[in-house]
From TrEMBL:
InterPro entries: Acyl_CoA_acyltransferase (IPR016181), Diverse_Substrate_AcTransf (IPR051016), GNAT_dom (IPR000182). It comes from the Bacteria. Pfam families: Acetyltransf_1. Gene3D superfamilies: 3.40.630.30. The lineage of its organism: Bacteria, Bacillati, Actinomycetota, Actinomycetes, Streptosporangiales. GO terms for molecular function: N-acetyltransferase activity. PROSITE patterns: GNAT (PS51186). Residues 2-153 form the N-acetyltransferase domain. Keywords: Acyltransferase, Transferase. This is Acetyltransferase (GNAT) family protein. It comes from Nonomuraea wenchangensis.
């Protein structure tokens, strides 16, 4: 049976091992990034981290944060969801998503959303539990291309 609960200080080593294994987006992270993330997960009331355990062993993690919305009730952004490759396809990710959705709703942030790469293997799960927004395009701001000297205020 899968047990899901909030991360605690004693989870640090297991959490970091799983977090470092989550390389799907091929984002390089330094030790400082892991330390900062860990501090936020434990200390920031808007940011949460949960662990999924199978027979007492941590096999999955999720990170999410609550934020206001201009037009709607509060929102919850699922930043990371990772399950150890050895135990995938056993319903662990689904259980974590359901747990996060329930927690978000209980906290007054019912709009749960996330993003993923187009070819992500987890899309089969996401297509079952979520709604795909066809045509939605995500942009990220390119600071280097928009240097302050080129922008007038």
């Amino acid at each position: 049976m899968v047990e899901i609960n909030f991360l605690t200080a004693s989870d640090r080593a297991c959490w970091e091992s799983l977090a470092r294994s989550d390389a799907y987006f091929e984002v390089e992270r330094g030790d400082d990034d892991y330390e900062r993330a860990w501090r936020r997960l434990l200390d920031d009331e808007r940011t949460r981290g949960v662990a999924a355990r199978l027979d007492g062993r941590m096999v999955g993690i999720a990170h999410y944060l609550f934020h206001a919305s201009i037009w709607y009730a509060g929102r919850c952004y699922l930043a990371d969801l990772y399950v150890d490759a050895e135990v995938r396809r056993r319903g662990i990710a689904t259980a974590v998503l359901e747990w996060v959705a329930r927690d978000a709703e209980e906290q007054g942030f019912p709009g749960l959303y996330w993003n993923t790469l187009e070819d992500a293997p987890a899309r089969a799960l996401y297509d079952k539990v979520g709604r795909f927004h066809d045509g939605l395009v995500l942009y990220t701001y390119r600071r280097a291309a928009n240097r302050p000297s080129a922008v007038r205020r």
